[in-house]
Amino acid sequence: MTQTPSSSPASVLQLVTDYPTAQVLHVAAQLRLADLLAAGPQRIEDLAAGTGTHAPALARFLRMLAALGVVAQEADGRISLTPVGAPLRANVPGSVRDRVLFLAGDWYWRTWGSLLHSVQTGKPAFDHIFGMSNFDYWKHHAEAGIVHDAYFTALAQDTTASLVSAYDFGQFGTVADIGGSQGPLLAAILAANPGVRGILFDLPRVVAEAPRVLAAAGMEDRCTVVGGDFFTSVPAGADAYILKYIIDDWDDERAAAILRRCRAAMGAGATLLLIEHVLPECWQAGEPAVPAARLDLHMLVMTPGGRERTESDFRRLLAESGFELQRVIPTQLPFSILEGTPR
Fold first, then answer.
1. Are the CB atoms for 272 and 262 separated by under 8 Å?
2. What is the pLDDT of residue 269?
3. Sign of CA dihedral 259, 262, 267, 272
4. What is the largest CA-CA distance in the chain?
5. Residue pair 155/163 in contact by the 8 Å Cβ criterion
6. N or C: the chain end with fewer CB closer than 10 Å?
7. pLDDT along the chain (343 residues), means of 10
């Protein structure tokens, strides 16, 4: 049964006025307020000095954070951090700071502000605003690239355990993670399956830090790191090829080109594993349809042709690329593992 949203005008207005909250949390993360308050309550004047802000304006800002439950005002007027605000601290278990910085960053904010451009033209608003693709932007703007990489590292830390437990990777001798960034997923797979070896493949600038990540996990001796471009070729000889959040970045033509490079590198008995969101075949209202549809729009405005796909979309795309979809394996996360084999 689909869930029907409330039809009251107030419900619509609530949807359209939530955007300031995102900026409030983003500024709190930028100012590192949670880290400053971690040692205990502080006076507003001291927080203003520590953040380089205007004390009266900061007081008004903190009032909003208090309304959201992120901070609290003590009886003596000092400001304290609440359990709700604690995840805004950096480098602590459960931290969401890196994700807040990315999801409400300037590039994200401005791009969504030009959603109309994408709806009218079918082209990414990001390119329209910044004059280059998002991939080129991360490459040429080091500070933004650091925020981008930190976001996906944080995302991997939250999702890796569920993915590793959802599939039997121990059946393979060698697993290749194509577009695997610095290797957090592959390191976890190897740690959970002592008999498996790995190949980590991504752009040279991306895998430059991979040896450090693999060494921290104790997996450096069981994993080969290869730099390259998956539009050109991918390493041959693995028993399984994983592509996590890769195919949804591209239109069908370029997604198929990546898959064909994988097919060319694979032996007849190898397995393809796509980790992706799978859209429902029929449109729905309410949860979980909203986050899935929002992510698909994110791909429209941010990427050069990226999109989320239904199971039938994946089946067709894989068939055109030399694969047959065998099964779709749900996980405890909002995405699934799609298992394919060479045709």
1. yes
2. 95
3. negative
4. 71
5. no
6. N
7. 54 68 94 96 97 96 96 97 95 89 90 95 96 91 87 82 94 97 93 97 90 93 96 97 96 97 96 95 82 91 94 98 97 93 96
CB 130 within 8 A of CB 137: yes
Q: What is the pLDDT of residue 2?
A: 45
Q: 92-100: long-range contacts (C-beta < 8 A, 24 or more apart)?
A: 95/154, 96/154, 97/29, 97/34, 98/147, 98/150, 98/151, 98/153, 98/154, 99/151, 99/154, 99/155, 100/25, 100/26, 100/28, 100/29
Amino acid making up residue 319: A
pLDDT at 145: 86
Q: Give the pLDDT score at 12.
A: 66
Contact 309, 276 (CB under 8 A): yes
Domain 107-342: CATH architecture, name and number where available: 3-Layer(aba) Sandwich (3.40)
Give me the residue spans of the domains in the chain. 9-90, 107-342
Calculate ∠ Cα 168-163-260, nearest 5°: 80
Query: Does residue 226 sit in helix, strand or coil?
Result: strand
The domain made up of 9-90 has a fold known as Arc Repressor Mutant, subunit A (1.10.10)
Q: How many residues does the chain have?
A: 343
CB 167 within 8 A of CB 191: no
| Angle, vertex CA 61, rays to CA 58 and CA 66, nearest 5 | 120
pLDDT on residue 155: 81
For residue 342, report the phi and psi dihedrals to the nearest 5 degrees. -60, 145
